């Protein structure tokens, strides 16, 4: 596989790409050893830059020098963010205002299209379903599980079981669930677990990923499966932080079971619940990998983040794609504001 | 909450277990019914907990078992039949998936993932800890405004920067298809969270520590290396694991900047196979697990730091 690509790049001529700021050997490598060498070289370059900053900083002396040192320490981060995040974001906003391809006359046509074209309206609807369902379902499961296993035997192991989906990629999770949903005709032997369950119960097997709008729910289950572990971990820590004497006092007053949860546990962990809901909400808004891997947004399952990718890279509609990216940013803001308002109230 | 035998639970606090024992000794008569009700409740609780745990692990188990079955078996019978007829389990799928040079091999992609991940974890740690130190302990003009700006950039979805970045890499810097595009992108996208997290940990350190070092004539560079870095190891580890999992598992950034076996990571390859050869389960299952092994091992062995980072507010999307 490696050899078939060798020779495509002119190694002998370092200036193969005149505009490259790095010489060719530091830019690309084909062999495994070359790749690792390149990696070490990159880390070394970064370390040298890092050392250079520190060396320069140590040259400054005195009161004014101290201020210069501070500015120098912060400079790489500030510069990288300005050039690599802020400036591109502004360019994207500009592009979103310049027609379908992003290079025409200024106007709001892309935004108008998002909210009028039927396919894009489906995308908006799907995104709304995701953001409404995933945070609440994941938090509910995570909270229930955290309460059930609190101080139980083998708690650490029980937690790891739910937590593990967080460690794997969303691509991996999608493959796992795609197999669960795998379809075969009812009379044939089943290989997908869910259809086997349906068949055993006497139902017809289903094409879970093809039939809208149910297929969106099927994708949402994957995200809930991933995020429940996060909810459980944070909420479990919050539950453990409730002072023992509060619980003890409530217990002496005869409070237990569901009332204990409703009047003692839940109010005590309210802040953590808000953080979990909003964090999962933001993650859900940006969900891309699951949709991309399981359906690629076909069969009416696309969401904003996936449509952004499709429009920008597959349909060559960079302006529309940019508008979708801006929409994503705009949708994040109310969730963040809600989070901040709730935190202020708490403090 | 479901614990009824505190003595048998290693996690339960000694005071609490003492409490419970006395409680049951005092109210032996009327305690019997409530105790029975509690036992019932805890049995239901355990049942529900086990049910959730089974629901959460079975899908993974299914694909794991599948990855050890032959292509023919996978498509003709369910993976659960293995438990009644365990014959025919094989390592062939993994052999195919890892064989160097083969068309179906994931090896090159796995190497790409490693090469992408290591610098993309180290670089933001370097840069963010420097900046966090400046923001936390070094006065300079405009410091607070800059810090708020860095903090606020956390909410910017990376999608909004991708296409202009691609343009900058290709047309201005001449990186085109190279690791540099992803190294830099992952670093940039990580910086707001990294700076914020590490800054928070730094602010928690006592200021007298720095003062004392200054009085002794230590410069900022010395303080940074000799005093702060050792104290910050847990914070850096916490962020490091986040970033590691994020970069290793990333699809979008690599999909935009890289393609082909020369540079693309394993996630891109698995996602691509899922689209083009959606029924090649023998390959997909093995590939998926090959991509999962490293993050799962890292995660399980460093879980402590991960949870700590999580609770400090570190989750980005």
From TrEMBL, chain A:
**Signal sequence extent:** none
This protein's record includes keyword Acyltransferase: no
Q: Does the keyword Transmembrane helix apply?
A: yes
Q: Which Pfam families match?
A: BPD_transp_1
Q: How does it sit in the membrane?
A: Multi-pass membrane protein
The membrane spanning regions, by residue number, are 36-59, 71-90, 128-148, 160-180, 217-239, 260-285, 320-341
Q: What is this protein called?
A: Carbohydrate ABC transporter membrane protein 1 (CUT1 family)
The record's listing under InterPro entries reads: MetI-like (IPR000515), MetI-like_sf (IPR035906), UgpAE/MalFG_permease (IPR050809)
Task: Pinpoint the ABC transmembrane type-1 domain residues.
Answer: 124-341
The record's comment on protein family reads:
Belongs to the binding-protein-dependent transport system permease family.
Provide the Gene Ontology terms for cellular component.
Answer: plasma membrane
What is its subcellular localisation?
Cell membrane
Q: Which domain of life is it from?
A: Bacteria
- GO term, biological process aspect, one: transmembrane transport
Q: What UniProt keywords are attached to this protein's entry? A: Cell membrane, Membrane, Transmembrane, Transmembrane helix, Transport
Principal location: membrane
From TrEMBL, chain B:
- Predominant location of this chain? membrane
Q: Which Gene3D superfamilies does this chain map to?
A: MetI-like (1.10.3720.10)
- Tell me the Gene Ontology biological-process terms attached to this UniProt entry: transmembrane transport
- TM spans (from-to): 44-65, 109-133, 145-166, 178-202, 223-248, 280-302
Q: Name one GO cellular component term.
A: plasma membrane
* UniProt biased composition (Polar residues): 1-23
CDD domains in alphabetical order? TM_PBP2
Q: Subcellular location, in the record's words?
A: Cell membrane
The question of whether Transmembrane helix is a record keyword is answered with yes
Q: Which residues form the ABC transmembrane type-1 domain?
A: 110-302
Q: Which UniProt keywords apply?
A: Cell membrane, Membrane, Transmembrane, Transmembrane helix, Transport
- Family matches, as Pfam families: BPD_transp_1
Q: How does it sit in the membrane?
A: Multi-pass membrane protein
According to the record, the residues making up region (Disordered) are: 1-31
Q: Which domain of life is it from?
A: Bacteria
What family does this belong to? Belongs to the binding-protein-dependent transport system permease family.
**The name this protein goes by in its record:** Carbohydrate ABC transporter membrane protein 2 (CUT1 family)
Q: Which organism is it from?
A: Knoellia remsis
- Taxonomy-wise, where does this protein's organism fall, top ranks first? Bacteria, Bacillati, Actinomycetota, Actinomycetes, Micrococcales
């Amino acid at each position: 596989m490696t050899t078939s690509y060798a020779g495509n790049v002119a190694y002998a001529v370092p200036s193969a790409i005149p505009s490259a700021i790095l010489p060719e050997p530091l830019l690309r490598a084909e062999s495994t050893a070359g790749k690792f060498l390149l990696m070490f070289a990159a880390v070394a370059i970064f370390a040298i830059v890092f050392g250079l900053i520190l060396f320069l900083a140590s040259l400054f002396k005195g009161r004014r020098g101290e201020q210069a040192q501070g500015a120098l320490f912060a400079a790489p981060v500030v510069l990288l963010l300005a050039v690599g995040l802020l400036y591109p974001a502004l360019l994207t906003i500009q592009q979103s205002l310049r027609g379908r391809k992003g290079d025409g006359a200024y106007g709001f046509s892309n935004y108008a299209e998002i909210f009028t074209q039927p396919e894009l309206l489906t995308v908006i609807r799907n995104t709304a379903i995701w953001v409404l369902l995933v945070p609440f379902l994941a938090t509910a499961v995570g909270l229930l599980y955290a309460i059930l296993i609190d101080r139980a035997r083998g708690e650490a192991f029980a937690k790891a079981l739910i937590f593990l989906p967080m460690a794997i990629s969303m691509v991996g999770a999608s493959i796992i669930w795609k197999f669960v949903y795998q379809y075969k005709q009812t009379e044939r032997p089943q290989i997908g677990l869910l259809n086997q369950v349906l068949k055993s119960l006497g139902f017809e097997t289903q094409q879970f990923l093809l039939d809208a709008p149910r297929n969106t729910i099927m994708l949402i289950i994957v995200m809930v499966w991933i995020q429940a572990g996060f909810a459980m971990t944070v909420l479990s820590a919050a539950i453990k932080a409730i002072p023992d004497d509060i619980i003890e006092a409530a217990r002496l007053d005869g409070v237990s079971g569901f009332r204990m949860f409703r009047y003692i546990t839940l109010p005590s962990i309210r802040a953590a619940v808000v953080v979990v809901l909003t964090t999962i909400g933001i993650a859900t808004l940006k969900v891309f990998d699951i949709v991309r891997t399981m359906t690629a947004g076909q069969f009416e399952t696309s969401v904003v983040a996936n449509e952004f990718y499709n429009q920008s890279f597959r349909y060559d509609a960079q302006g529309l794609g940019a508008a979708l990216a801006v929409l994503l940013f705009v949708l994040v803001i109310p969730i963040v504001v809600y989070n901040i308002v709730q935190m202020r109230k708490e403090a | 909450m479901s614990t009824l035998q505190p003595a048998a639970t290693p996690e339960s606090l000694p005071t609490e277990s003492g409490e419970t024992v006395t409680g049951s000794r005092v109210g032996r008569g009327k305690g019997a019914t409530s105790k029975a009700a509690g036992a019932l409740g805890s049995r239901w609780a355990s049942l529900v907990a086990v049910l959730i745990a089974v629901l959460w692990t079975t899908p993974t188990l299914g694909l794991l078992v599948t990855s050890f079955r032959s292509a023919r078996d996978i498509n003709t019978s369910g993976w659960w039949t293995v438990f009644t007829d365990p014959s025919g389990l094989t390592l062939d799928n993994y052999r195919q998936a890892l064989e160097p040079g083969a068309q179906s091999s994931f090896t090159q992609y796995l190497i790409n993932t490693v090469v992408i991940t290591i610098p993309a974890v180290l670089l933001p740690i370097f840069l963010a800890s420097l900046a966090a130190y400046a923001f936390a302990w070094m006065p300079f003009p405009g410091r607070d405004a800059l810090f708020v700006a860095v903090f606020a950039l956390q909410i910017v979805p990376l999608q909004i920067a991708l296409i202009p970045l691609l343009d900058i890499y290709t047309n201005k810097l001449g990186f085109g298809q190279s690791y540099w595009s992803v190294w830099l992108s992952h670093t940039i996208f990580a910086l707001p969270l990294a700076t914020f997290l590490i800054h928070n940990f730094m602010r928690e350190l006592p200021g007298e520590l720095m003062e004392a070092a200054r009085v002794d004539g230590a410069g900022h560079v010395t303080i940074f290396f000799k005093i702060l870095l050792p104290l910050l190891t847990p914070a850096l580890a916490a962020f490091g694991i986040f970033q590691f999992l994020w970069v290793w598992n990333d699809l979008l950034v690599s999909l935009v900047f890289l393609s082909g076996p020369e540079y693309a990571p394993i996630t891109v390859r698995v996602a691509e196979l899922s689209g083009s050869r959606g029924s090649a389960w023998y390959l997909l299952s093995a590939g998926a697990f090959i991509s999962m092994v490293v993050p799962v091992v890292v995660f399980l062995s460093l879980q402590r730091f991960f949870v700590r980072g999580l609770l400090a507010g570190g989750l980005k999307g």
